[in-house]
Lipoprotein-anchoring transpeptidase ErfK/SrfK (Rhizobium leguminosarum), 268 residues
Amino acid sequence: MKFLRRVFPIAGLVIAAGSLSGCNILIPDVAADSPARFVQETSPVFYQPPGVDPRRVRPIPDQPVPQTRELYKTQFHQTYGLPVSNPVHMAMYGAVRDEDFTLPAIPVSRVQPQFLRQEVDYQTAERPGTVIVDTKAHFLYFVEENGKAMRYGVGLGRDGYAWSGRGVIQWKQKWPRWTPPVEMVSRQPEVRAFSAENGGMNPGLQNPLGARAMYIFKDGQDTLYRIHGTPDWQSIGKATSSGCVRMLNQDVVDLYDRLPAKAEIVVM
């Protein structure tokens, strides 16, 4: 009996070890560390259509990178992620304090870009400092040196087409008083309150002459032709019912500061 008690535990251990030898638990898989096996198991598999020789397939040439992209354009022809307006224009036409008044900012995004102030190439026989008004294109040029000019967009009223030729800007004035001529008073009786006999209209943001006015003379006589600012920024680049040469108030201030004394002007 004692013998059998000693034999049975040993036999149980032998049977258990034999049953575990079938599992790969106690014996490590040394072949998994083989570099050749690793390459074989991880090598890529390429799709090869039948009848196609990969050595005879030509590579696709590189396509050129597009220089411009149409990125989610809106109905307003703007592109998401890009500035809506030129920051330089925002600075030029922002609100500005001038004398006793504050000129309001101009919504430049609603003004045609060609009528905004910009320096352009401009070949002319006129000397620098001359003002040239192109009534057909609605542009005013201030001639600079080296074939350059500062170009401004202008609006032209009925009186703006009434005179052409060569003259002199006899004098200029900041925040002028508006005194409509007799002809305008007869056409528009509603402006009689601002006639010369009634003292005219005080300077201000609603004054039709705007922030500056320049008076053109020829042979010492007033031509009644004026270059002036206007609060009506929507009239720039257009023909209006009255007035001479209208400029954005920020532009007429800029031109006023550039003009030399007794500057020549050519209207064509």
The two ends are 137 Å apart (CA to CA). The mean pLDDT is 81. The longest helix spans residues 2-20.
